[in-house]
Amino acid sequence: MEMKAFLRTMTVAAMPLFFPTHATGATKNATLYVNGSVTAQPCTVSQTQMTVNLGDIYTSTLVGAGAATPWVPFTLSLTSCPDGTNGVTAVISGATDSNGNFINQGTAGDIAVQLQAISGQQLSSGSSLQTAVDQSQNAKFSLQVRAITPGGNATSGTLQSAINITYTWQ
Fold first, then answer.
1. What is the pTM of this model?
2. What's the CA gap between 166 and 89, in Å, rounded?
3. What is the Cα–Cα distance from 160 to 103, expressed in whole angstroms?
4. Could you write out the three-class secondary structure of 39-87?
5. Per residue in 105-134, pLDDT tens?
6. What does the pLDDT look like over 151-162, one tens digit per residue?
7. Fewer Cβ in 10 A, N or C end of the chain?
8. What is the DSSP string of the chain?
9. Mean pLDDT across the stretch 87-105?
10. What's the pLDDT at 3?
């Protein structure tokens, strides 16, 4: 019996010599993941900073809640949109009051700024507009702005409001 147990032990101990568990020519597989993002190239923003001048505003014309100046139109232009760029989205942001008007950061009191698309669509922080890229590879947003007195008691001073536009391309 001892001999049989000895042979079994030798056989088990010798198995790695005949059936290696790690062959030197063995191969392993690996997986390679390739990620990316396909996006439209950007257009050229014609003016990265723009000032729209509302001119002289007289407090006598801003009497009564909601009194406002005439609309002043302006255009945001994008040029040289590459082939494959079909549209542009503009997202509006800035500090607004409870009515969605952009807050005056100047010294005049009870006055704010209203922004609209030329079509009359009221724009506030978080609003977005879309436009197509034309055959000349350009895009434009036609907008208008005015001063408004929410409470009807505008006081003298400066009117300054910052409105940010973030463009994305499709």
1. 0.75
2. 8
3. 8
4. CCCCCEECCCCCCCCCCCCCHHHCECCCEECCCEEEEEEEECCCCCCCE
5. 999 999 999 999 999 999 999 999 999 999
6. 999 999 999 999
7. N
8. -HHHHHHHHHHHHHHHHHS-SS-TT--------------PPPPEES-SS---------GGG-BSTTEEPPPEEEEEEEE-PPTT--EEEEEEE--B-TTSPEEP-SS-SS-EEEEEETTS-EE-TT-EEEEE--TTS-EEEEEEEEEEESSSB--SS------EEEEEE-
9. 96
10. 40
CB 143 within 8 A of CB 86: no
- In CATH terms, the superfamily for domain 59-152 is Fimbrial-type adhesion domain (2.60.40.1090)
Instruction: Tell me the average pLDDT of the chain.
Output: 86
- Looking at the predicted structure, is the pLDDT value of residue 102 above 60? yes
CA distances from 29 to 23, 26, 32 (A): 15, 10, 10
Closest among 80, 75, 61 to 147, alpha carbons compared: 61
For tokens 């439209």, the residue is 40
